[in-house]
Design a protein that fits this description.
CATH class of the domain at 30-130: Mainly Beta
CATH architecture of the domain at 30-130: Sandwich
Strand order of the largest sheet: 6-1-9-10
Distance between the termini: 99 Å
Order of helices and strands: HEEEEEEEEEHHE
Number of helices: 3
Strand content: 35-45%
Largest sheet: 4 strands, mixed
């Protein structure tokens, strides 16, 4: 009887640990989100022009101020992500704003959102892509090998 009770408690403890680990796996997933204010041409030939200036706020804090052609970033945890944008179409123009909520893809660590395409209502496959950093090239030196003990050739 004592052994059965011990086994049941161990199974319950193991199940609880697995449940907590599964929750933390989903909730605690970190992502780096990049925001682009760059021109983008969609697969159908539609051109999404950049805005003059875009401010991105997360939880009321400005994380990026993007001029035309700029990229900003923020790190976040979890799958649901909300951010606020404040937009200016042209210099001296009226500022517009709104809140955007997105589901971050679980399988991607670095996500790039092209804001002009996103705000124009393009499909997710057009305005979202995975961030893949450029490989770092190692500098190589040309090594000249000389044989200082070479015997002079007899010609």
């Amino acid at each position: 009887m004592k052994n059965k009770r011990k086994i049941i408690f161990r199974i319950i403890a193991l199940a609880l640990i697995i449940a907590v680990a599964a929750c933390m796996f989903v909730i605690g997933r970190g992502h780096t989100v990049y925001f682009d204010n760059k021109e983008l041409t969609g697969p159908d030939g539609t051109v999404y022009e950049p805005w003059y200036q875009i401010e991105v706020l997360v939880n009321g804090e400005r994380v990026a101020r993007l001029a035309e052609g700029d990229r900003g970033m923020v790190s976040t945890m979890g799958q649901d992500f909300k951010f606020e944008v404040k937009l200016t179409k042209q210099k001296g123009g009226k500022m517009q704003g709104g809140t955007i909520g997105v589901k971050l893809p679980y399988s991607i660590d670095g996500i790039i959102y092209n804001l002009p395409a996103m705000l124009a209502g393009a499909e997710e496959s057009v305005y979202m892509e995975e961030f893949i950093p450029d490989p770092i090239e190692e500098e190589t030196e040309d090594v000249v090998v000389t044989d200082e003990f070479a015997m002079p050739s007899e010609e």
